[in-house]
Write a structure and sequence with these properties.
The complex is a heterodimer. Chain A is of the alpha/beta class. Chain A contains 9 helices and 10 strands. In chain A, helix 6 links the parallel strand 7 and strand 8. Classes of the chains: A alpha/beta, B mainly alpha.
């Protein structure tokens, strides 16, 4: 689905990513963990080119996307992203938040977009908020709507950048439940998170990243937590678990 | 001093009605309004353009080596110099330079004033728009881009509407300033409201009535503008 090949990213003199190689297959649910400043968010943001890699290749569905003549907007239509701070459009109501992109990118007409939005809002139980503006909603509601907004484009891959870190504790569950539901429906997901429960239960692959390189890559989440292979991973897990 | 109704009628008649004196103020007022409106249009359009250049320059910083990046870089330098020069020199001097040097072959005084005040206001509006744009949560622009919207689409649908809302108060202030600043048009011989009052004084030899009358007219228009902008602010807020 998406492949990072020898990826480097510098911010001025700071080397954030130092040669990342990662191949995410369709339907994989990859959870990316690591200490703060390890480069995990930067890696995720490189995948849809919100950050431009300094060096290396990003191959999405067989196409190298970080080169001159690629229409990045076209690529991003197939790659949704969910942000820590939700980033709903504060000048638009819930319905418009959902329908803006599919209409502007000519995926759907107004009528199709409206009915799809209503269907999605029904699914996440927020159809009664359809006319509300983002500042009238709780953090958990905003984040579920942000996920629905990403789903409106029927993406092949969903990127989650610490989706529950800005939420009050009692709202984390509703967002994780929705993500679990998506995972079970077969969505390909890359999730940067500190929710180890989610990582253990829902992920089928765990990446531990530190100092800009992938330290450990495990296809057995339960075993990863009970029996980490690398010394650095052991240290990290002992601090957070 | 005894003030009776006959006295007031005589006062108004002597100072404003006789020989159609009021027409100096009325015609001057029309010129003031025309200059303000057309200068506003120039200032608004050019102001947004300058602000967009400066913001795009910041947004596109990593891609300076592409042809569009180089173009933006050059335009940004011009925009910066323009804003510095306009804001760093008195409007009166700008008006005199436009009239006596730059537009010496243009004999339409009104047009000279419109161009001067429009170009002047653009520099201030550019800074107002820029601060309004930069106050928009950058995460929302990223969210728009992550959904596949182009830079221009995300600017026009997400950033600019919010920027407009952010800068409405300072924007209203700038429109009022522009309107009042046109009162220096008399420096190039354009008969606006202030100059009309001056001519009237040369007929009646009484300074107070025409000057206070023109001050009152400016004040009334400013009050109307304030109401318009308050109504706009109420309309665009969702709270």
């Amino acid at each position: 689905m998406i492949k990072l090949s020898n990826l480097y990213k510098n911010f001025d003199d700071l080397e954030v990513l130092r040669g990342v190689n990662l191949d995410i297959k369709p339907s994989e649910k990859v959870v990316i963990i690591g200490p703060s400043g390890s480069g995990k968010s930067t890696m995720l943001r490189c995948m849809n080119l919100l950050e431009k890699p300094t060096h290396g290749e990003i191959i999405f569905k067989g196409q190298i996307i970080n080169q001159e003549h690629v229409d990045i907007n076209k690529v991003r239509e197939n790659m949704g992203m969910v942000f820590q701070q939700f980033n709903l459009f504060s000048n638009l109501n819930v319905l418009e938040n959902l329908t803006l992109a599919p209409i502007m990118r000519n995926h759907l007409n107004q009528e199709e977009a409206d009915s799809k939005a209503i269907e999605l809002l029904n699914r996440i139980g927020l159809v009664d908020k359809i006319d509300n503006f983002p500042n009238q909603l709780s953090g958990g509601q905003q984040q579920r709507i942000a996920i629905a907004r990403a789903l409106m484009m029927d993406p092949d891959l969903l990127l989650f950048d610490e989706p529950t870190s800005a939420l009050d504790p009692e709202m984390v569950g509703e967002v994780l439940d929705l993500m679990t539901e998506l995972a079970e429906a077969g969505m390909t997901m890359a999730v940067v998170t500190h929710e180890m429960g989610f990582a253990r239960e829902v992920a089928n692959r765990i990446i531990f990243i530190d100092e800009g390189i992938i330290v450990e890559d495990s296809y057995d989440p339960k075993n990863f937590f009970d029996n980490p292979q690398q010394e650095r991973t052991k240290q990290f897990l002992s601090k957070i678990l | 001093m005894i003030i009776n109704s006959q006295g007031i009628v005589n006062f108004i008649t002597d100072n404003f009605i006789v020989d159609d004196y009021w027409k100096y103020l009325a015609n001057g007022f029309l010129v003031t309004i025309q200059v303000t409106i057309f200068a506003f249009i120039i200032g608004f359009g050019l102001g947004i353009f300058l602000a967009m250049i400066r913001v795009a320059h910041k947004d596109l910083a990593p891609s300076w080596k592409t042809p569009s990046g180089i173009l933006i870089n050059i335009l940004n330098k011009i925009a910066n110099a323009y804003i510095t020069i306009i804001r760093g020199t008195p409007t009166t001097v700008q008006l005199l330079i436009m009239f006596n040097v730059v537009l010496i072959n243009l004999h339409n005084l009104k047009l000279v004033a419109i161009l001067t005040f429009g170009l002047n206001s653009a520099a201030y509006m550019a800074e107002i728009f820029r601060s309004g744009i930069q106050a928009v949560n950058p995460g929302e622009k990223e969210a728009a881009r992550s959904l596949g919207l182009s830079y221009l689409q995300s600017m026009s649908r997400i950033v600019m509407p919010q920027a407009f809302r952010n800068c409405l108060p300072s924007f209203g202030n700038e429109v009022i300033t522009l309107f009042k600043e046109t009162s220096i048009s008399g420096f190039i011989g354009l008969v606006d409201l202030t100059r009309g009052a001056g001519i009237l004084i040369s007929k009646t030899f009484k300074a107070a009535p025409p000057y206070f009358a023109s001050a009152l007219i400016y004040l009334i228009v400013v009050l109307i503008l304030e109401q318009i902008f308050h109504a706009l602010e109420r309309r665009v807020s969702h709270d």
